[in-house]
Write a structure and sequence with these properties.
Layout: H1 17-29, E1 37-39, H2 47-56, E2 60-63, E3 73-78, E4 86-94, E5 97-109, H3 136-150, H4 164-176, H5 192-199, H6 205-218, E6 228-230, E7 238-240, H7 244-257, H8 261-269, H9 275-289, H10 296-326, H11 344-351, H12 354-360, H13 364-367, H14 370-381, H15 388-399, H16 401-410, H17 415-424, H18 427-451, H19 459-484, H20 488-493, H21 495-514, H22 519-541, H23 551-586, H24 595-608, E8 625-626, H25 629-634, E9 638-639, H26 643-681, H27 683-700, H28 709-729, H29 731-747, H30 763-769, H31 779-791, H32 798-894
Parallel strand pairs: 1-2, 8-9
Antiparallel strand pairs: 2-3, 3-4, 4-5, 6-7
Helix pairs in contact: 3-4, 4-5, 4-8, 5-7, 7-8, 7-9, 9-10, 10-31, 10-32, 11-31, 12-27, 15-18, 18-19, 18-22, 19-21, 21-22, 23-24, 23-26, 28-30
Length: about 900
């Protein structure tokens, strides 16, 4: 707001000029404005200005030309209402870093009637020497933000708008792409009002159903809407219940959704945005890139920004990984030998779900990075490289686990047992032990079916019942863990878990039927047992998903089964149509309604799909067949077809072969080919999803495989009793500590301060039941990500690309303008050519008239010339005659 006298547009002289200026500015902008007084020529000393500034709590900004080193910008905030003197707080700034206050002191401003100019104070805005290509509006925002950040929350420097100033000005800078404030300067967190300033929408239920719902859909549920609570004073208004880092992420999303890309990039450069928010932000860019309304130049810019954002996320995870490698406490444990190492990079990718977010958002740049692969290899194999020596070591320990793991059930203390526990606690080792257990189960099962399947219970049956019972304990434990972790829906949606329960139920039914007497019970039991063997054999394929070579192939097979079911729905109609028509035409007499007849009707068309055409079956005649029902029902001879059947059946069969075998089977092959190509392109994402699910499942599992759960539960109960006895001695101290901890936890107002601890559960729970450390999200890990984000911050090179894009846009605009001008010129030329054609026609018409007149004049001229020539010839002849006469006279005289 200026302080010079302005020309008013109304006759209301009672309204103050500054109030009039503010009202007119709000009317023209159609929004509320934050007033600021910029003093020039010592205008801040004017009594009228000081009265208005103190009354409305408006900051006064002024600049000086020659000041002490580092202080060339000043902000005055009124301390009290103006009476006889103006008491204010003077905040001094350096224009090189206008967001950081250098000095503050109390001052009393002397008033002057005319203002009077001060020598060092600027008299015009042109005298301000801005640094770093900053604009004046950005500098004013930086100065006011710097004042707000350094002041106390209770200090109402700007009156009722004290909380509005820093929040609104920061969002303005981000929207305008002028944000340069470092993260360490932001000492006051933003609020939900920040999102309202960017999106220009109120924080209501429509906001949740709009922006956040759309963001959740396009990110494949990688983005989860934040928690929010309703305000007491206004039920329509809501307040966010999120951490500071998540709030920065929401601001980042809002900037991208409203296409403030420069502001989003600048917020990312300051280190305020975490990896998860970057991955989801890339999805927003991808959505805008796929929009048909986006121009080609904008698409190229969005692609470059998507790639740059992904590389920034990789720089953050690389910094964390390097810090883990340099840390001397890489293998340190928090609670004895059974603790987990503080590898923050691995915990972020797996425990915090960043790897799942990258898979859901299909960020190929992030997944293909070598650092991410090294981190996953460390989680899988305990080392970033899998060598032949490591594989041989895993195989050796896997074959010896039948002898070594029971020893670990007794004790795990001591150097050799600690090392053995570390080896068996590797997820790949757990998968290998379960694979060995499944193969042992299938070998015993195959031996029972082929060589030892009897009516009575044999030793092979006892062996299988023990292993299946242990398998049942393992699956029951998985259900309890899923319920405890609030992931039961994920458990029941997994088809492999359904297959596990189906195989156990089938085996149980087979064994129950085996207890019955009679051949029918025995045969039914064998059918169920064989079916259970088939299901358990398929279950082994799940363990092959850890292989990058076999995992995508299993996904392709699964997708092809879906295609097959869709194909069979159409094929069933065609086959049924052919079978009924063929059988009805082939035989004249009615057939008996029985299962054998139905089987004969359906098998003809089905087996023809596999090449069994049976061309001679519909042309047999007596004595090779019979019309007698008793004979062909007994199976002695085939049933003779009718004469109509022998004539039409071959043609109907040929038509069926053409449609079913040639057309439909080739359609199925084409569907398989399309599925293969589609899955092969995205095989990286499918296998990464399988690998992540496996890594989570076997990181949670204890070191004891499924076939040792009987022993594990017994020793778990023993260790539970020991732990219970020990806890009785320290129960009072523990309860006291828990109450103190709960008091501290409830007194913490900021969610960022909440922290969980590793190895908080008893040892027997983590060793025999499941690893409770997996779901722990450490404060140290979040802090490590924040430090890495600050370390990885740097100015992105999108700016250079933007210059190129701007140049391309200018060239494109020049081409468009040239094309438009060329079209206009062509239209003008066409008009000119039409006029010239018309003028040419007129000229030709005039020329034709002129030519006619000239020809008439030329003819008259030619006749006149001829007369003159005749007269001239007569005159010349008369002259010649006169000369001749005169000559004759002279000759006579001479004679």
């Amino acid at each position: 707001m200026g302080i010079s006298t302005i020309h008013r547009g109304d006759a209301n002289e009672e309204e103050h000029e500054m109030l009039y200026f503010k009202r007119m500015a709000e009317y023209s902008c159609d929004d509320l404005l934050l007033p600021v007084i910029i003093s020039m020529g010592n205008g801040k000393s004017t009594k009228e200005v000081l009265q208005y500034a103190s009354k409305k709590k408006i900051p006064i900004v002024y600049f000086k030309k020659d000041t002490e080193k580092g202080h060339d910008a000043f902000v005055l905030t009124p301390d009290e209402e103006f009476k006889e003197t103006f008491k204010a707080t003077e905040h001094r700034f350096d224009l090189r870093t206008p967001w950081k206050r250098q000095r503050v002191e109390r001052r009393v401003i002397e008033t002057k009637e005319d203002g009077g100019e001060e020598e060092n104070e600027i008299s015009s805005l042109n005298e301000i020497k801005l640094k770093q290509n900053l604009s004046l509006d950005a500098v004013i925002c930086y100065l006011l933000i710097g004042v707000s950040m350094e002041s106390n929350t209770n200090d109402k420097l700007f009156g009722s708008s004290s909380e509005v100033y820093p929040n609104a000005l920061c969002m303005y800078l981000l929207k305008e792409g002028k944000w340069k404030i470092p993260k360490d300067v932001i000492k006051k967190s933003f609020s939900h009002k920040s999102l309202e300033y960017i999106t220009e929408e109120s924080m209501t239920e429509k906001f949740e159903k709009g922006l956040w719902k759309e963001l959740q859909e396009i990110s494949g549920d990688a983005y989860q809407p934040p928690a929010w609570v309703k305000m007491n004073n206004d039920p329509q208004e809501h307040k966010l219940d999120v951490t500071i880092s998540d709030l920065y992420g929401l601001i980042f999303y809002a900037l991208l959704f409203r296409k403030f890309y420069h502001g989003a990039k600048q917020l990312l450069e300051t280190g305020c945005v975490r990896i998860r928010h970057i991955l989801v932000g890339c999805v927003i860019l991808q959505k805008e890139e796929n929009n048909w309304q986006t121009s080609q130049l904008e698409k190229e810019q969005l692609q470059q920004m998507h790639k740059t954002f992904s590389h920034h996320a990789l720089r953050i995870i690389s910094c964390i990984h390097d810090a883990d490698n340099r840390s001397t406490t890489k293998k340190s444990r928090d609670d004895g030998p059974l603790g987990d190492p503080d590898l923050h990079s691995g915990r972020l990718l797996l425990n915090h779900g960043y790897l799942k977010d990258a898979i859901k958002t299909e960020n190929k740049t992030f997944l293909d990075n070598e650092v991410v692969k090294d981190i996953l290899n460390e989680k899988w194999y305990g080392n970033n490289k899998l060598t032949i020596r490591t594989i041989l070591g895993f195989l050796s320990f896997s074959l010896l686990h039948f002898a070594l793991l029971p020893v670990l059930m007794f004790t795990m203390e001591g150097p050799p047992f600690e090392r053995i526990y570390e080896v068996y606690n590797i997820p790949f080792m757990k998968v290998l032990n379960n694979l060995v257990g499944f193969f042992s189960l299938l070998l015993g099962y195959a031996y029972m079916l082929l060589f030892n399947h009897e009516e009575d219970i044999s030793y092979a049956d006892i062996f299988l019942m023990v292993w299946i019972g242990s398998f049942l304990i393992d699956e029951t434990k998985q259900i309890i863990i899923a319920v405890r972790r609030n992931k039961f829906r994920i458990y029941i949606r997994d088809p492999w878990n359904i297959l596990d329960w189906l195989s156990m139920i089938t085996y149980t039914c087979g064994m129950l039927l085996k207890s019955g007497s009679g051949l029918n019970y025995f045969n039914a039991s064998k059918i169920f047992l064989v079916l259970a063997f088939i299901l358990l054999s398929i279950r082994v394929l799940n363990l092959f998903c850890i292989s990058e070579l076999l995992g995508p192939k299993l996904v392709i097979i699964q997708k092809m089964f879906i295609d097959t079911f869709a194909f069979m729905a159409v094929m069933t109609v065609i086959t049924m149509c052919y079978n009924v028509s063929y059988f009805a035409i082939l035989y004249h007499d009615n057939s008996d309604f029985s299962f054998d007849t139905l089987e004969k009707v359906t098998r003809n068309g089905y087996w023809m799909l596999f090449g069994e055409l049976n061309l001679e079956g519909d042309r047999v005649t007596e004595p090779d067949c019979s019309f007698d029902e008793a004979i062909y029902s007994s199976g002695a001879l085939e049933r003779c077809p009718s004469s109509l059947g022998r004539f039409l059946a071959p043609y109907l069969k040929a038509l069926y072969v053409l449609v079913a075998v040639i057309l439909m089977l080739n359609l199925l092959i084409a569907m398989y080919s399309y599925t293969f190509s589609e899955v092969h392109v995205k095989s990286k994402f499918y296998w990464s999803q399988l690998q992540t699910n496996f890594l989570e499942e076997y990181s949670l599992k204890p070191i004891f495989p499924f076939h040792m759960q009987w022993l594990a539960m017994v020793f778990c109960f023993i260790h539970f009793l020991i732990w219970k006895v020990r806890m009785k001695d320290i129960a009072f101290c523990k309860n006291e500590n828990d109450s103190d901890a709960s008091t501290i936890r409830h007194s913490t107002s900021n969610k960022e301060e909440a922290d969980d601890k590793l190895n908080d559960s008893p040892v027997f729970v983590r060793v025999f039941l499941y690893d409770t450390n997996f779901d722990v999200k450490l404060k140290k890990t979040r802090e490590a990500e924040g430090h890495a984000a600050l370390k990885a911050k740097r100015e992105m090179d999108i700016a250079e690309k933007d210059k190129i894009m701007v140049l391309k846009e200018k060239i494109q605009k020049m081409k468009t303008d040239f094309k438009t001008s060329n079209e206009k010129m062509m239209e003008e030329l066409k008009k000119i050519s039409k006029k010239m054609d018309q003028q040419g026609k007129d000229i030709k018409r005039i020329q034709s008239k002129v030519g006619t007149s000239r020809r008439s004049s030329i003819s008259s001229t030619s006749s006149y010339g001829k007369d003159r020539e005749r007269q001239h010839s007569k005159q010349s002849s008369s002259r010649r005659s006169s000369i001749s006469s005169s000559s004759s006279t002279s000759s006579d005289d001479s004679l």
